[in-house]
Amino acid sequence: MPLRITLKPKERVFIAGAVVVNGDGKCDLVVLNDVAVLREKDILTSTSADTPCKRIYLAVQLMYMNQMNLAQCHEPYWSLVRDVVVAAPSTGDLIDQISAHVLSGRYYPALKSARTLVQYEKELIRHVRQPHQGL
């Protein structure tokens, strides 16, 4: 099924190993084959992967973007997920969902689930930082 992407002026998109930068106006692209596509806003850098769940997202992103070198990404991924589940057992269901996608080679759905994990991590951190009332 074709993928239609509308790019804003100067927006970047990663398509099958190439970084494509839009010009000054809005642009519509249609990708006809099954290749890795990520918008700039969805790309996490190693510098911005500053939490355990963001590092999981980054590992999955690298699997998705560079499927020729999966072995390099799998080992850190499994180590990270073990550590996160031990530290925050409530992440287990999300981690299981991501891992099921990874094991079956469905890296884009794994990436979408990893994005949900990052949001859940933000909620956990926000909850911990809130002052406890009524104690």
Query: What are the segments in which pLDDT stays under 50 over at least 5 consecutive residues?
Result: none
* Total DSSP E strands: 5
Q: What is the global morphology?
A: globular
Share of helix among residues? 40-55%
The proportion of strand residues reads 15-25%
| N→C terminal distance | 56 Å
Order of H and E elements = EEEEEHHHH
Side by side, the strands of the main sheet go 3-2-5
Tell me the Rg in angstroms.
17 Å
Largest sheet: 3 strands, antiparallel
Number of domains: 2
Alpha-beta content class:
alpha+beta
Estimate the mean pLDDT confidence.
91
Tally the helices: 4
Note down, in words, how this protein is organized:
- The chain has four helices and five strands; from the N terminus they run E-E-E-E-E-H-H-H-H.
- It is α+β, with helices and mostly antiparallel strands and 135 residues long.
- The chain is globular and about 50 Å long.
- The longest helix has 23 residues, at 107-129.
- The protein folds into two domains: 3-42, no CATH class; 52-129.
